[in-house]
């Protein structure tokens, strides 16, 4: 039954992504050359609606419970989210935390190359990085300045550890710690602070840093490591998030101060997670004494029914109508060309802005 549920969950989610991107997202691409602001608002609304679907499947179909403690996330703020990286799927479970831990639905998390989800996230303005700091620094600056000029609020997720926690990365991280006189960690990796420091300083410079949200994620029982675990039905019974909000004006402004601030948060995570996992009874593990168990929302039942219906209907259009088949082939070809011969739709969006809007405004 685990494999049946796991495969059904992944198929519903993934097929739903592909057809939603092709039939709902793609038509809005024609707006982009004419109005960046309208395009951004339209794609953000679609993403917020769609993201409820995989979260609803996760909770209603797979029985995963989301446990929250600490502060709420305000999506009306421009903020940075930092989080420890326990496995390759943390970003997916974060969607559930954002749904239940925000004052209202929100979001902006690398899956760029995956057909379907990668295309949709390109259109949604997700910031995909090269893992080359020279290129990434320039791209991040352009993107942050772009959102500032549009007057858009945004949440940027960054995993300062740079990789998820497993034996090889832990060994490498602690080897670095020994060389630099830092303590060894068992439950987190030492953070790489270059990207985080740049984001903080650039957003401070733009007067757009309202807050930094520090999230600690933990899995008290089942721990999936990668996508194959989900296919086999290995979904965590619970995922715990502790959220701490730090006002933007309380962060240091100098590079060393920001670096030290981030390292202090990771030392706190290590202590918190050590205490969490030292509890022998998984049912009693808590990141905080005050835990909010996120109950399924009524809208989640509607999301499952409506988005599954959309998936079935668009599947029918694709394989049983001529225009649907050719439209799908045309859309997929377009996404593939843009994704593999440029650095994605999000870069094309920035290029249009800096060539036309920004140039005209500067005049």
Automatic annotation (TrEMBL):
Residues 79-197 form the Phospholipid/glycerol acyltransferase domain. GO terms for biological process: phosphatidylinositol acyl-chain remodeling. The chain crosses the membrane at residues 12-32, 299-319, 325-345. CDD domains: LPLAT_LCLAT1-like. GO terms for molecular function: acyltransferase activity. Keywords: Acyltransferase, Membrane, Transferase, Transmembrane, Transmembrane helix. GO terms for cellular component: endoplasmic reticulum. Belongs to the 1-acyl-sn-glycerol-3-phosphate acyltransferase family. PANTHER family: 1-ACYLGLYCEROL-3-PHOSPHATE ACYLTRANSFERASE-RELATED, LYSOCARDIOLIPIN ACYLTRANSFERASE 1. This is Lysocardiolipin acyltransferase 1. It comes from Folsomia candida.
């Amino acid at each position: 039954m685990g494999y049946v549920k796991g495969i059904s969950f992944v198929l519903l989610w993934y097929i739903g992504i592909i057809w939603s991107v092709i039939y709902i997202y793609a038509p809005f691409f024609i707006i982009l050359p004419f109005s960046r602001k309208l395009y951004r608002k339209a794609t953000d609304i679609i993403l917020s609606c769609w993201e409820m679907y995989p979260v609803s499947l996760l909770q209603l179909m797979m029985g995963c419970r989301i446990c929250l403690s600490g502060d709420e996330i305000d999506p009306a703020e421009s903020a940075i989210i930092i989080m420890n990286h326990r496995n390759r799927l943390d970003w997916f479970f974060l969607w559930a935390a954002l749904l239940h831990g925000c004052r209202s639905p929100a979001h902006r998390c690398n899956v760029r190359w995956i057909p379907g989800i990668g295309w949709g996230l390109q259109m949604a303005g997700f910031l995909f990085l090269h893992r080359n700091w020279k290129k990434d620094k320039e791209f991040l600056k352009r993107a942050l300045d772009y959102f500032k000029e549009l007057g858009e609020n945004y949440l940027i997720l960054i995993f300062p550890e740079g990789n998820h926690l497993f034996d090889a990365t832990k060994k490498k991280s602690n080897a670095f710690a020994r060389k630099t006189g830092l303590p060894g960690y068992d439950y987190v990796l030492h953070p790489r602070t270059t990207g985080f420091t740049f984001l903080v300083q650039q957003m401070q410079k733009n007067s757009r840093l309202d807050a930094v949200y520090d999230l600690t994620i933990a899995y008290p029982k089942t721990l999936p490591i990668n996508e194959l675990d989900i296919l086999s039905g290995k979904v965590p019974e619970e995922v715990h998030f502790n959220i701490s909000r730090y006002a933007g004006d309380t962060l240091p402004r100098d590079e060393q101060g920001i670096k030290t601030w981030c390292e202090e948060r990771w030392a706190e995570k290590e202590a918190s997670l050590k205490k969490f996992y030292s509890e022998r009874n998984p049912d009693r593990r808590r990141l905080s004494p005050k835990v909010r168990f996120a109950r399924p929302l009524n809208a989640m039942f509607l999301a499952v029914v409506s988005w599954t219906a959309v998936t079935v209907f668009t599947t029918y259009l694709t394989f049983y109508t001529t225009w649907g088949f050719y439209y799908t082939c045309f859309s997929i070809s377009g996404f593939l060309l843009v994704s593999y011969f440029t650095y994605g739709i999000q870069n094309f969006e920035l290029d249009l802005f800096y060539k036309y809007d920004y140039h005209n405004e500067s005049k």
